Amino acid sequence: MDFDKVIDRRGTYCTQWDYVADRFGEEDLLPFTISDTDFAVPKEVMDTLQKRLSHQVFGYTRWNNGDFQQAVMNWYQKRFAYQPQSEWILYSPSVIYSVAQLIQMESNEGDGVIIQTPAYDAFFKTIEGNQRRVIENPLIYSAGYYRIDFEDLEEKLADPRNKILLFCSPHNPTGRVWTEEELRPVVSLCVKYNVFLISDEIHMDVVSQGHKHLPITQFMTNNVALVTSGSKTFNFPGLIFSYLILPNSEDRELFLNHLKNKDGLSSTSILGMEATMAAYNYSSDWVDELNTYIADNIHLATTFFEEKFEKVVIVPTEATYLMWIDLSGISIPMDEVQRRLVHIGRVAIMDGEVYGGNGEHFLRLNVGCPRAKLIEGLNRIEKSLEGVE
Prior knowledge:
- This protein has helices spanning 15-18, 21-24, 43-55, 66-80, 95-106, 121-129, 150-158, 180-192, 231-234, 249-262, 270-282, 284-308, 334-345, 371-384; strands spanning 30-32, 89-92, 112-115, 133-136, 140-142, 145-147, 162-168, 196-200, 224-228, 242-245, 313-315, 322-326, 347-351, 362-366.
- The chain is α/β, with parallel strands linked by helices.
- This is cysteine-S-conjugate beta-lyase.
């Protein structure tokens, strides 16, 4: 795969490129924003899609088939040395749809949903949109590194008004890959206080060397749901396809009732399903190449900040293609940083304030792009912050 290849995404109704003004107020900015990449899908995926398109009939499609479930099982075995049972695997149009339905299933209006902040901004919206309360368990930030505050987590889990822990593994935006020594006590506390655990593992494949993602359902099979998709890894969120691993049969029955009867979503996107199966069946080597390329981009950006802005701290990116950059040590406030990035450098980078916690001191930089774009972006950052100490 040629990850250096630049593909012009403008004019394709692309959220990141064509609608950058929605968030930043200006057109024609160089974007490093929402979490998709600028990479083409793997050749095996493209070949599969083209073959299916040539069929010319796109009728109602059944996701509940052995080929799809086997592709997921094989992927987990190959990438994580773990294999869920086939009947645990259910389709969902998106990870956030899954989260919303599980929140409705496992709690009542007014109940608390615990998240570890800073957190993916859609978590706040989904919790509040379902009339539940956001309960923050702020991550401890020390010496440029994040860890779970277990004392505070237990206090929040022990409150009977809090019914769900919405967990992010690997964690967006901090880039943490939770270790077994961290996951086991999280699971134990949820079991102890009978709190349902939803684990968003959509970034599970993009993991730095020396770190290993561990699926949550290998530690527990009751009161748990693993929600994920191939869309972040292989860059096809526009094909609208995700899945969840739901071990408990009663939970599966209730989720399918929401999916099929309440919301009328029993038929899936044929292209999304075909893309996922092709990616999982044939593109493991592509993911290895992707991770190498992302690691090189992270190294490039880290070196840039170390050389140009010595007071900027780069949080180690253990997973994802999203760098979490601490600007709390520089001499200007974040609103001025953003003003300069947009109006001087003409570059769009996510303001960490939207992720809660201590995010107001951070930028989230998406480095899932060809190196030429990243270099141009870093040059624009340097121009934007010229003279800042």
